[in-house]
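Lab meeting notes turned into a lecture example. A postdoc, R.K., suggested we walk through two folding results consecutively so the class can see how the record format repeats. The first protein's sequence and structure tokens come next.
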Amino acid sequence: MFHVKHEVWTERAAAIGVELSLEMVGKLELFGSLIRDRAVALGLVSAADLSSLPERHLLDCLRAAVAARKTDRLAYDLGSGAGLPGIVVAIARPSLEVSLIEARRTRGAFLEMAVERLRLANARVVVSRFEALSEPADVCFARAVADAAGSWRAAERLLRPGGRLVYFAGSTFEAATDVPIGVRARILRPVRPVSLARAGPLVIMSRQ
């Protein structure tokens, strides 16, 4: 059974910089169960990741909630897949409207089920390609979608002035070679908790 003690969730989230209520913890646990029971069979998450699901996916995705500003109103989770990080961010940041962008209908159906089961009033599923989006967003999230340059190309035209892309980089990421030319980048490297020490950095990209 998927379960992590509430105090463990809150302690680990606090180490990252996120304050979780008991309701949020409950939703994260339910979301983990939905991933285990439904997303693996759909090929959205590897079965090999189940033993480390809280750390490898849920806690890792909470880092994106730290990168969201209090003034942000609309976020796009590009290529949402299983809702990582979009659903996790929506749980942790209820004041932020998160659009889960997914081109594949089968994945969109999982996302719709998850949003309904979790009762996430601030999340909506958009079954569409990036190119069809037009409403400008304050922030875009990209995790396991493309490399840094490809993720920036997808996000750039969707960002309002001052908007940012929060890109989940791999452990081999090198800012000098991987950040597109002419793009401002701020690097947030995971330090704590220890379980995230091997994760790649978050790269916050914006127009210069």
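The second example is placed directly after the first for contrast:
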Amino acid sequence: MAIISSYPSITPLLGDKVLGSNTVDSYGQPVLGNPTVQYDLSAIKTLVDQKYSQKLTSSNIGNITPGNDNTGIPVVFGAEDLTDPYVHIDAAGKVTFKGVGSYSIQQIYYGQGTNPTNVILNFKAVQDGTTQIGPTTTSRFIPSASTARLRIEINSLVDITSAETYYNFWVQNPTSGGTGTLATQVTDAAWGTDVPSAQIIITKLV
């Protein structure tokens, strides 16, 4: 095989191919031996042109009280929404992924507690009712006043490999902390809408 620098340089066309190493499969799993393969430039262009597109947003304008215990509850984000072909949410907060692919999940919460106790709020995602996905996220804070709010944001990227996979998002206020809740922040009517206690935004790589 000749030295690469000896080959001529030309302007590529979408019908051309390039050589590369196949290191992961379509599910993100390592490929044994990293075989050398050909890639169509048109396929590379399609891959590079991908972007995240919002598929679902849902908010809860009302307080969510998990109870000062070690059990926790699923978060209810808002009304049922079955309009998007890729992501659905029901009235109980269950998110169902209707199509495979890469998704970005943004959870936004507003924690509240009683001054001056040490409030603990734990969060987790559970897949198909049984398996925790990703780590537990925790927030500890001492409210400066009963009207104070702590903004909590959790961002994650997930690869859904099977349609109809569903997630529930849980919140827990354990007995080791003071009484906490997820609370709406009411704004002046002339300003705009109230700040929700819980919001979820899901986008898909398309």
